[in-house]
Design goal:
4-stranded antiparallel sheet
């Protein structure tokens, strides 16, 4: 019984495999060369890649609310606190806080902080440290002398920057957001947020993560309670003004008081009566304003969020760079696979010809 023309016999497959193995043996030097080349490329990759030290800080925001009880009490007293407590609740809803942490304003403020705050003689900033260790200085210093000597120790966060300083800071912020910074929630439905920084400098990674958390916390609290605090100050100034006016009216009333006015001159008591009336009105207004100030102060206490730090990075930081043996193994295997594929294509081409 003969086999169909489109059927491949097992003996043919075995014969082809033997021929391919013999072909590989004839090209064993070429295959070995490709394997060695893969190992060399892995070695080169290991030494040209910078170490990556990762520092992670995690925190949780505990929201406080004035609650319906306080709002109801204020409504019964004839005062609506909803217009004065601020409308910032939605600002940090969802993933907005993740974008705020990565904003240029916050990152720039952290970069311009001193590396060693306790040492008044050392003005080196985190921007200087990142510029030197990230490879950005080596990349830019050949373009101009100013870039080679650029430093950020002389500028402040609220001071004007030179065009060159501002441009390089912008490059740093873009590079940090792209390559070095990872801000995320630990789970999609959770409220725990982690800030991870990886860089070639363990000192930069640790300080940047810690200070980014602190800067975000300060901004968060400032925005949440800032409007309410300004309204408290405004009402307190009004209360102080009313108190001063009430004191003057009290002295005026005492000066106009007549104990035994002559019946024929009853009109002399009119100024005293008017002064008493003004005093009563001022006293009522003063009491209302003071009451409202105290209600807002209670609301401020209840609305102020608590930033609870769960974890801060500590030395020594772990180098996240892949191990030398793993990179070498990947390089050797890559050389072997590429070599076998090349020989397979060459063997197929020879058979067709």
């Amino acid at each position: 019984m003969s086999l169909p023309n489109n059927t491949v016999a097992l003996t043919d497959i075995i014969a082809s495999a033997k021929n391919f193995i013999q072909f590989i043996q004839s090209k064993i030097k070429l295959l070995g060369l490709l394997i060695v080349l893969g190992g060399v490329l892995g070695l080169v990759y290991y030494f040209i890649t910078s170490p990556k030290y990762q520092a992670t800080a995690t925190f949780i925001v505990e929201e406080k609310s004035s609650g319906s009880g306080l709002a109801g009490m204020a409504g019964q007293l004839g005062f609506d606190i909803s217009s004065l407590t601020g409308g910032n609740a939605g600002l940090f809803d969802g993933d907005n806080i993740l974008e705020i942490i990565k904003s240029r304003n916050i990152i720039e403020s952290v970069l311009l902080s001193k590396v060693d705050i306790a040492d008044s003689t050392n003005n080196k900033t985190l921007a200087d440290l990142y510029y030197e260790t990230s490879g950005l200085k080596n990349k830019l210093e050949g373009k101009s002398k100013e870039l080679a000597n650029l430093n950020f120790s002389s500028i402040k966060t609220d001071a004007a920057h030179t065009i060159l300083q501002d441009s390089v800071l912008y490059m740093m912020i873009e590079k940090i957001n792209k390559d070095n910074l990872n801000v995320q929630r630990t789970n999609k439905k959770g409220s725990i947020i982690s800030i991870s920084t990886n860089s070639a400098s363990p000192q930069f990674s640790k300080l940047f993560s810690e200070r980014l958390l602190n800067e975000t916390s300060e901004m968060y609290i400032k925005i949440k309670v800032g409007n309410l605090s300004s309204n408290i100050n405004r009402l307190q100034n009004k209360a102080d003004s009313l108190q001063a006016l009430l004191n003057r009216t009290s002295y005026q009333s005492a000066a106009l008081n007549t104990f035994d006015a002559n019946e024929a001159y009853k009109s002399s008591a009119v100024p005293e009566e008017m002064s008493q009336r003004d005093k009563l009105v001022l006293n009522t207004l003063y009491a209302e304003v003071v009451k409202n100030v105290e209600i807002l102060r209670i609301s401020l206490i209840n609305q102020k969020p608590i930033i609870q730090v769960l974890d801060l990075p500590k030395f020594p930081l772990v180098n996240q760079q892949k191990s030398f043996l793993l990179i070498e193994l990947i390089g050797i295997l890559a050389g072997l696979v590429i070599g076998l594929l090349y020989l397979l294509l060459a063997y197929t081409g020879n058979n067709k010809s």
